[in-house]
Amino acid sequence: MSRQIDPPRDESELMRRARDLAGQSVGQLARRLGRALPADPVRGKGIAGELAERTLGATAGNLDHPDFSALGIELKTIPLDEAGHVRESTFVCALDLDQVEREEWQDSRVRRKLGRVLWLPVQWKAGQPPAVRRYGIPLIWSPDPQEESLLRGDWLELVGRIAVGGIDEITAHMGRALQIRPKAASASVQVEAAGPEREPLLTVPRGFYLRSSFTERLLWRHSDG
């Protein structure tokens, strides 16, 4: 069994560790950590992120804190295809219907999660087993004024729709950078929300996601390369 890895002392140490992962395969990292890998690409979807968290010394676990709590940095693995394009949207956080209407953008859960992010690309082909996927060059990022304005505008539009009881009117087509999509283990899972007349209604749990077009642009804009 592998030893517990101490959390990084500062951002520079975290980045050194992340750069050391570049070029390594998920299989190599799993062997080092003594972790068995599923052969099924679907079942192994999140394994690259789990292994990276352990190797880099993430501390938050399942708590609602940034992965590197003392540094205020969130870790996001991001899958890229052979051409370097982002393959899918990126989960930000769950939508808390009891809290979101009382939040302001400045203090919102979404903004806290995106205040400082370590992006760790994972390169793979469709149908490829998890073991052969490889980590790419990491990027540390905070939204610049243009990006923050875009995210804030989307957040205000989406939360405003929830506030007037229109949660079931929200689709994944809304939002230029930030979107709300279903987030549940199965379609049978439901939570209570408020309808147009503030009447209770049952709906599927949802989460905030970043569009792949947004994350792809930020990787290109902020990368040293």
Describe the structure.
This protein has 225 residues and is of the alpha+beta class. The chain has one domain (11-222): DNA mismatch repair MutH/Restriction endonuclease, type II (ECO RV Endonuclease, Chain A), CATH 3.40.600. The chain is 29% helix and 19% strand. It has helices spanning 11-21, 26-33, 47-56, 109-114, 145-163, 212-222; strands at residues 74-80, 90-94, 117-123, 134-135, 139-141, 178-182, 191-194, 200-203, 206-210. α2 packs across α3 (47-56). The chain is globular.
Largest sheet entry: 4 strands, mixed
Query: Helical stretch count?
Result: 6
SS class: alpha+beta
Succession of helices and strands:
HHHEEHEEEHEEEEH
Number of structurally distinct domains: 1
Give the DSSP E fraction (strand runs of 2 or more residues): 15-25%
Overall pLDDT: 88
CATH hierarchy, class: Alpha Beta
The CA-CA distance between the termini, in Å, is: 37 Å
Number of strands: 9
- Fraction of helical residues: 25-40%
Uncertain segments:
none
> Which CATH architecture would you pick?
3-Layer(aba) Sandwich
CATH superfamily: DNA mismatch repair MutH/Restriction endonuclease, type II
* The CATH topology: ECO RV Endonuclease, Chain A
* General shape: globular
> How large, in whole angstroms, is the Cα Rg?
18 Å
Write the layout of secondary structure elements.
Elements: H1 11-21, H2 26-33, H3 47-56, E1 74-80, E2 90-94, H4 109-114, E3 117-123, E4 134-135, E5 139-141, H5 145-163, E6 178-182, E7 191-194, E8 200-203, E9 206-210, H6 212-222
Parallel strand pairs: 1-3
Antiparallel strand pairs: 2-9, 3-4, 3-5, 6-9, 7-8
Helix pairs in contact: 2-3
